Amino acid sequence: MTDGGAREPRAHSQSPVDSEFTATQQRAGDRERLAALRRLDACIQRFGAVLRALQV
Q1: CA distance 22 to 33
Q2: N or C: fewer beta carbons within 10 Å in the chain?
Q3: How far apart are CA 49 and CA 55, in angstroms?
Q4: Buried (b) or exposed (e) across 11-22, using 16+ Cβ within 10 A?
């Protein structure tokens, strides 16, 4: 049983600063994932070029 003075957990209500920080962190993560995908794509392209050169 909780009394009427119980506080809500902080996770349910973010301040505007917290929300902006979270959004900034998500954008940074998105940029990192996009960079990783671009590196992977470049590797796949090089591998394809090697296979074509070997005519496999």
Answers
A1: 16
A2: N
A3: 10
A4: eeeeeeeeeeee
